[in-house]
Write a structure and sequence with these properties.
The protein starts with a strand and ends with a helix. Helices cover 83% and strands 4% of the residues. By secondary structure, the chain is mainly alpha-helical. The longest helix has 91 residues.
């Protein structure tokens, strides 16, 4: 809307005669209601902005990063790889434990076999020791018998007197029996 005032045309702001206009108590209530609605709308817009501001302030209080972002990303990747490697390490340790348990059982079986063989060899050794002591006893008895017979033979040889006639007769009998 335009008003002519003197020689000049002037534009009138529509808010001046709608929202800001004071025409009685009703318009005042409407204006208060509109201002409250506007206040609520601004409050609704302010809350996310306030949260964003607090988040920005929190981030600004954090320590500044001295390295480029790629460096930190590579560190994160390495950390993830470490976790993966730890899982692999645990799996390998479990497999090693299973293998060791298997080897331990095999070694235990081998030990039992060796103990059994050792017991058998001990028994054979004891039998051989028994036979050796028996043989020594027999050898001792044989030696004692030999000494007794030797002594007896020497005694008899001392008592024996050689007779040449009997010797000739014995040789003649012996020669006939051989031929």
């Amino acid at each position: 809307m335009y008003v002519v005032s003197g020689y000049r045309l002037q534009h009138i702001n529509p808010e001046s005669y709608t929202r800001r206009a004071y025409i009685g108590e009703t318009s005042m209530r409407q204006r208060i209601r509109r201002l409250e609605e506007r206040c609520d709308a601004l409050q609704q817009e302010r809350l996310p902005l306030q949260e964003m501001k607090e988040e920005i302030q929190r981030v600004l209080t954090l320590e500044a990063l001295s390295q480029p972002a790629e460096e930190y990303m590579s560190w994160k990747k390495e950390i993830d790889e470490i976790q993966k490697k730890e899982r692999e390490k645990r799996q390998i340790q479990e497999e090693m434990k299973k293998l060791q348990d298997g080897e331990v059982s095999a070694l235990k079986a081998q030990k039992e076999d060796l103990l059994r063989q050792q017991a058998q060899l001990k028994q054979e050794l004891e039998e051989l020791i028994g036979k050796i002591s028996e043989s020594r006893g027999n050898a001792q008895r044989n030696q004692n018998f030999y000494q007794t017979v030797e002594t007896e033979l020497q005694d008899r040889q001392k008592e024996f007197h050689e007779d040449p006639q009997k010797e000739e007769g014995f040789r003649a009998i012996w020669i006939r029996s051989v031929l």
